[in-house]
Amino acid sequence: MRGDHTPGRGDEVSPPHSFTDDANAAAGVREAFAEEGLDAWSRAADLLAWDRPYETVVRDGDRLEWFAGGRLNASHNCLDRHLDERKSHVALRWEGTGGESRVYTYLDLHHEVNEAAAALRDIGVEAGDVVTCYAPVIPELVVTMLACARLGALHNVVFAGFSADELATRLRRTESSYLVTCDGYYRRGNAVTQLTTADNARMAVDHDVDPVVVERLDDDAVYLGDDHRRYADLLDDHRGETVEPVARDATDPLFVIYTSGTTGEPSRVTHTTGGYLAHVAWTGRAVLDIEPFDTHWCAADAAWITGHSYMVYAPLALGATTLLYEGAPDQPEKDRLWELVERHRVDTFYTASTAVRSFMKWGADHPDSHDLSSLRLLGMVGEPTDPEAWNWYWGHVGGKECPVVDTWWQTETGGILVSTLPGVDPMRPGSAGPAVPGVDVAVVDREGEPVADGDPGHLAVTTPWPGMSRSLAREAAGTDNGADDGWLYVTGDRAVRDGDGYVTFLGREDDTVTVGNTAFGPATLESAVIEVDAIAEAAVVESSEQGGTAVAYVCTERDHGGDDDLREEIGEHVGERLGPTARFGEIVFTPELPKTHSGKIMRRLLGAIADSEEYGDTSALRNPEIVGEIETVANDE
Ligand code: PRX
Which residue has the least CA distance to atom 18 on ligand 1? Predict the structure, then answer.
């Protein structure tokens, strides 16, 4: 790509030479994986330190066992083994909501994790126990995760904004007897109490739950009772103690996590110690290009899989600095993220695709007013990306010098499965790219048969991969390693694959919009809406009440209003792009779309509004107040 032409769907953009010359994954890596098959994943295992070497890359039995026979400890891999080379290098940099900050070198983090592990062991935590964590993005959360890993206990991190009911369900289902939480935290400058909610959840479960409380609030507004143990006191009691990392089998669980549940019920996923850690370290290195001594920023909440994999485990396993930010991207101002990138000289930046659309809506003057020249790579995850957002990110944040990786994966997959390798593959705005080396994907019909290149269908993964959850490893067992004998992991996403293997995502199957006899992935319709000038974001859902029509919820850009002329323009443009069936029964303008805390648009809820149905609990939303507003606007029209 040359000149000022803005690359659109189908265009190719080569990663800049300034990047590819030093990239972690270089030409030849795809070929090497293709030649060696699943054994090629030994490269991922080589990034880790093993207490006992593994016998085979993958063994087939009751379940697929990655790196079977090997033993390792994740906390040792993220801390101890780095001490010789980078004791005084920053492991974790934390920025709080109110301008506070903390810095932990690898040695500091090692000390605190050891003390926390000693404290947890002292209150009874043993290998195999589940410790539930219910706290915002504070260093103590990461310390607790690594302390659990050190003991061979499983962490079960629950998003801090979830209700007592949701916490109770997760405590119950994981039979977790330990809870690490906090007195409260600050959201947009206001103190939010957390302990009362945590206590309500404890009371709602039948078994005893032992709480450890981090004091995050500045004053003593929240009363700690006799049964609450203070995190700070516990650590004081164990000052200077060390805990030998407990060697775990590669296939032993490292943690449990619940899926975000935007479409279905949240379900429990368990990840392994060896396969998961190897997968996230390898993809962190090859796809996000994290290098030792880099500052990597994954701007997600630690409670989601993105936070586990690419905020905690990958950067620390790779010996980088991970930046943690507790606050909102627009607090105190809408340039907050760029101010942090500039101040901390961030090298690699990873965020939600929907966040990029919000940045666009806020205006380019925010990134443009900061020196972002430290950035080397930009990543996105979570929802399909349209070429316009891709271009904005590439131009305004990356200055056209940082490759943009659009990474597709899921809680169940543990780590990235589809993405360009930034040092190797050309980028195509709007398409996530090919599967990563070592992974094969296919687009199949309802019967599981591959469809022709270019036709939409269901995305399936046809080879196993090290980061697969334990239940997927069970499903894949006994099928010739899943490779040839028909094992398909059908992902629940609709997608199109072109002749070169590049995958364009169309959205979740459950969100498919059928108009007349044509099924559209929501992303197809939404990206056509967004092409219209003055449109910042859109979500399209199907309405059965309105006779199987599509309803578009649309946000306009700053300084633009929505009116009938714009509605007409949207209708005409989408018709031209996608044909006469692609018609909207209704177009509703709204200042915001309802999004979860992990940045996903809650289309299910918009569908309920379109059908005038009950939409239920909105506690999973970051902006629940918008729902009433949308309802009012929708009813007025
Ligand atoms: O629909 C896909 C979408 O997010 C789903 C997985 O969500 P979750 O388990 O919460 O994990 C999110 C972080 C990995 C997928 O089934 N998704 C994720 N990344 C992309 C995406 N859709 C399109 N493009 C992506 N890059």
Answer: 382
The residue contributing the CA closest to ligand 1 atom 1 is: 508
Nearest CA owner, ligand 1 atom 11? 410
Q: Is the pTM of this model over 0.90?
A: yes
- The rounded distance, in Å, linking the Cα atoms of 441 and 408 is 12
Residue closest by Cα to atom 26 of ligand 1: 408
| Binding site membership of 306 for ligand 1 (Cβ less than 6 Å) | yes
Question: Measured between alpha carbons, how far is 224 from 248 in angstroms, rounded to an integer?
Answer: 35
Q: What sign does the CA torsion over 251, 26, 495, 299 have? A: positive
159 lines ligand 1 (CB under 6 A): no
Across all residues in the chain, what is the average pLDDT?
93
Domains 108-246 and 512-636 share a fold: no
Residue whose CA is at the smallest distance from ligand 1 atom 17: 382
- Residue with CA at minimum distance from ligand 1 atom 14: 410
What's the pLDDT at 409?
Answer: 98
Q: Is 611:588 a contact under the CB 8 Å cutoff?
A: no
601 pLDDT above the threshold of 70: yes
What is the structure's pLDDT at 3? Answer: 47
409 Cβ below 6 A of ligand 1: yes
Q: Is the CB of 505 under 6 A from ligand 1?
A: yes
Cα 507 to averaged position of ligand 1 atoms, centre (Å): 9
DSSP classification of residue 11? -
Burial of residue 45 (CB within 10 Å: 0-12, 13-18, 19+) is buried
Q: Measured in angstroms, how far is the CA atom of residue 594 from the centroid of ligand 1?
A: 17
Domain residue spans of the chain: 108-246, 512-636
Ligand 1 near 508 CB (within 6 A): yes
CA of 503 to the centre of ligand 1 (A): 13
What is the bridge-based pairing of β-strands 295-298 and 101-105? unpaired
Q: Where are the beta strands (DSSP E) in 194-247?
A: 210-214, 229-230
- The helix/strand/coil state of 166 is helix
Around 127, how many Cα atoms within 13 Å sit in the side-chain half-sphere? 14
- Cα 381-266-607 angle, rounded to 5 deg: 75
Q: Which CATH architecture has domain 108-246?
A: 3-Layer(aba) Sandwich (3.40)
Q: Which residue has the higher pLDDT, 484 or 359?
A: 359
Return the pLDDT at 439: 96
Q: Which atom of ligand 1 lies at the shortest distance from residue 380's CA?
A: 26
Q: Which CATH number fits domain 512-636: 3.40.190.10, 3.40.50.2300, 3.30.300.30, 2.60.40.1930?
A: 3.30.300.30
Q: Quick one: which atom of ligand 1 is closest to the CA of 412? A: 9
Q: Tens of pLDDT along 308-342?
A: 999 999 999 999 999 999 999 999 999 999 999 99
CA distance 83 to 80: 5
Residue nearest to atom 7 of ligand 1 (CA): 410
Q: Rounded to the nearest whole angstrom, what is the distance from the C-alpha of residue 383 to the centroid of ligand 1? A: 6
Cα-flanking dihedrals φ and ψ of residue 519, to 5°?
-100, 125
